[in-house]
Design a protein that fits this description.
This is NmrA-like domain-containing protein. The protein has 357 residues and is α/β, with parallel strands linked by helices. Helices cover 48% and strands 11% of the residues.
Length: 357
């Protein structure tokens, strides 16, 4: 029996790329939708993916992308109009009569959250519940990548920047999140109507993570509590867009309030994949093997100079970004742990893994 073609959006990002690679590793036919034919897209083509260049906000692109597709993975873009892209995708999926759609949501998703992306991902969840096609929601919390994206500072200077104090999280790796998504895509009958929150196997603070990073790098690493204004400058130096950071600063506050420790350990990775989730230390070892973690005189000097010039580098005016983008915050915004409706819905999700209202 021939395998249906699977469409993967966001295929040059954290989870989309991992989903495409895992599907091709299992010999499934994959079409990826990317915004530009850059080096990352060429890597996917070399893996055997059919590459389509286009914009999730373009209805004609979505119709073309869905042609001949049987199943699809939706990654809503970081954009103040992300719900428009999600709606276009879901409408095209229904018109194409897809048998299965897996959507990337967010653990924090709630109606009156200060972050525009979190509010719009809550709206997407409501849309998913009303669809006739088979739908699976994957709603991870704070990724391991969020802590490890600055591993070069740990490798070169012995400091791991932290924004979250002593609050706890069991961060899932990109690969485990992707494995849950792939499991739902290749066995839709089993996973339709389900909602999963992949987590790691252990709740850790960034102090505990620093110890794991130190072991992975085989050197001393000290946690450095970084103020948000300094992190925003460092993130801009790394090319992180304002749209992503707009919500990230709010997720950090949710983190400090305990939102990621709330029902913070699930069995969803093992439930879907049949194996335990990857430990943070194992994820850190993979990051420690990256080129940016290789220590030379030049790399250590470069990291030191970057660290020293970060305070005087330009940052983002995120309030102005949101104002210019037409983002309007709710009159009575509240973070996840202040929202009893969110807490009740996430308790059910963690316990039952069912996409319910």
């Amino acid at each position: 029996m021939s395998r249906p073609l699977i469409l993967v959006t966001g295929a040059t990002g954290k989870t989309g790329g991992a989903v495409a690679r895992q599907l091709r590793g299992l010999d499934w036919p994959v079409r990826v939708l990317v915004r530009s034919a850059d080096a990352r897209a060429r890597v996917l083509a070399d893996l055997g993916c059919e590459v389509q260049v286009g914009d999730l906000f373009d209805p004609a692109v979505m119709q073309t992308a869905m042609r001949g597709v049987g199943r699809a993975y939706l990654v809503p873009p970081f954009d103040p109009r992300m719900i428009e892209a999600a709606d276009l995708f879901l409408r095209a999926a229904q018109e194409a009569r897809l048998e299965s759609t897996v959507a990337l949501g967010q653990w924090l998703a709630c109606e009156r959250h200060p972050a525009f992306e979190t509010r719009q991902l809550w709206q997407m969840e409501q849309r998913l519940r009303g669809l006739s096609l088979g739908v699976t929601l994957v709603a991870p919390g704070f990724f391991a990548d969020n802590y490890l994206r600055l591993i070069n500072f740990a490798a070169q200077l012995g400091v791991l920047p932290s924004l979250t104090g002593n609050s706890l999280n069991a961060p899932p790796s990109n690969e485990d999140i992707a494995a849950v998504i792939v499991g739902a895509l290749i066995d839709p009958d089993r996973h339709a109507g389900r909602a999963y929150r992949p987590t790691g196997p252990q709740l850790l603070s960034t102090a505990g993570m620093a110890k794991e990073v130190a072991t992975a790098l085989d050197r001393g690493v000290m946690r450095f509590e970084m103020p948000m204004w300094l992190f925003l400058k460092a993130a801009r130096m790394q090319g992180v867009p304002a749209a992503e950071l707009s919500g990230f600063r709010h997720r950090v506050r949710d983190h400090k309030q305990g939102a990621f420790a709330f029902h913070g350990l699930t069995d969803h990775v093992e439930r879907v994949t049949g194996r335990p989730p990857e430990a943070f230390g194992a994820t850190a070892r993979r990051y420690a093997a990256l080129p940016e973690a290789r220590v030379t005189f030049a790399s250590r000097t470069g990291a030191f100079l970057d660290f020293m010039r970060t305070p005087i580098a330009p940052g983002y005016d995120l309030a102005r970004f949101e104002r210019d983008a037409g983002v309007v915050a709710p009159a009575k915004a509240r973070y996840a742990m202040q929202d009893p409706v969110w807490k009740a819905s996430r308790e059910r999700l963690a316990r039952d893994a069912v996409l319910t209202a």
